[in-house]
Request: fold
Amino acid sequence: HAYQVAGDSNGGFFRPRPGYPDSSGPGGVTVEAYRWSDLPSGTAVRTLSLVFLLPFMLCNVATWMRPNPAGSDNTMKALCRILGLTLTALYVLSIVGAALDLVAWQCMASPRCVRDRDWLSWLGTQPTGLRLAVLSLVPTGAIALIWWLSARPGRPFSAFHAPTTTGSGPYRLGDVGRWDSGPLVGRLRSIHVATAFATLDASLLAARLSPDVSVVTLVLAALVAAVLACCIALVCAGKLLDHPEPHPTADVTTRLLRTFACGLTVLVVVDVLIDPAQWPPGIGLPRYGAFLAWVFLAQTLLLAGIGLVVLRSRGLRGRRRGWGAPAIAAVATGLAVAFSSELVYRVADLLNREEPTAARAVISPPPAYKWAIFGFVLAVLGTLVVAGLVTVVSARGRYRVAADIVARDFPDAPRKAEPRLRQVERTIARARFTEHLEPITMVYACLIGLGLATSVLGLMGRFPAEVIQGYIGVPGELVNFFLGGGSYVIAAILLGLVVGGVFAYRTAEFRRYVGVIWDLGTFWPRGTHPFAPPCYAERAVPELTRRITYLVGQGNRVLLSGHSHGSVLLAAAVLQLPERVGKRVALLTYGSPLRRLYGPLFPAYVDEDVLREVGRRVGWRWINIWRDTDQIGSWIFSPNRPGDPARPEDPAATVDRRQIDP
Reply:
């Protein structure tokens, strides 16, 4: 019943066809809708691919959660970007662990493992160097795949970039749509691709090192170390990377680094293939487990550093403390560690046939992966226990407040309405649980950090079963059973994310919650990790701004109506409207997360001053409808509940309109 009047196949503006019911609003108002659903998600295949990019997306969001744009900006940004490099390295190390460590090194050297496996036995009789060189194509292909995925989705957005940029410096909500992140993402992509190839090279060369190693191998190892050092230094050079326009020095430097890393990988593979030196003995790929454990330890230190930056920030003095940054960074790291551990663990299960991988099987992952699974599952279980305690402890207070609200809203309700009143009361009590999510996520962040810290034991070659049995007395068989069960828990989480991506297209209620996560995660530009999904706000906000300006230029007055995350897009668009346009615009929002979610999570970009600027831009022609039964939306400036003091001198006091349950 609708036809498109502007935009393209990915999104745009629609109007009802003439002659259909509800083709116009009250009083003959022209009704027009903006659809952006294909920008953050799109096809089912693309949405499922975003599930596997979830750790990168969360790492990117964590940077925008810093407490304030000044002071902690550079430090927080550098820490998050280095953490992003470790996630890329971990992605490569998981493929290296599956293809090179488990298959090429361990399985092909074991007659029992290659028996009845023609797809392995043909290469099992070849020298170690040839096996590693051939199977290096697997991580190389994985790097190429994620490189292609990160570059491809952003192309349709380029035509909608804003004509001007804001320059370098602190960004606010109104700057999101003006900032063209294309140049920055291109530089970060080059750095991460260089890091990925250098990680593969370091894994091969670390295994190659021995007393009789050749000079060529040592030179290549030094060059790989220099590439990794350059990658870390570049992501910390904020002024160089964050230039909003093409910058010859930054662009050429990052592209040269990427090209050099690609060429260096070819040389490393050739060296592995033709160097006649003996390979060091070992059950697993030499030094691979230590390399992995050092990455886990580095992630632990980076998470601690992010937490310390927030702790020292001035944002701690207010309610909006910016604790979302370490919490979301920990969630991103925990998911990345869990995904990589599960991949290696499943491959080991496949190669071990019927023998349990949790024990000291013939084909065994490094101890660091087993400690990672152990720590992740303990963190999940610990968080669930804390969430249950918070639910029980807070229930009395939440239900007491809900009962008071219901009693005030329905003082003369008939007796037959009692079941409905209790339903409303329960809904309000559940909705108020949103305020208790912060301590739960902080507990998870701390537990993930402690779990990653156990990677030090992996450096010593100690396995969870022997350590726990020796120091705590828990039987090793029980620990191994817990590890095996933990692996299936991670598989269930991953399967749940995939199924969730599918059901988001089939179930409206479930799609709402999935949509909130994707909208929140892909609203912000890719300022940290280039492999994250693209920022749709770079197109949506300028497109909305131009359409509103066009409609006003045609002599119209425009009422903007935004629900849930649509209200965030409209707020960002209003902040970009010329003053002459804002005089003919009014704003209606409902179910808006601007105060309840965006304020606490992004205190540097959505605060009282920004929200008041939105109201001023539209001459305070702004109505925000909210209700106590909403789990996501809330009031913007004042609850305006019955009995609250009136503030006639403050125009913001007239914005919020509380609605009771119908």
Observations:
- Confidence is low (pLDDT under 50) at residues 163-170, 315-320.
- Residues 113 and 186 are 43 Å apart (CA to CA).
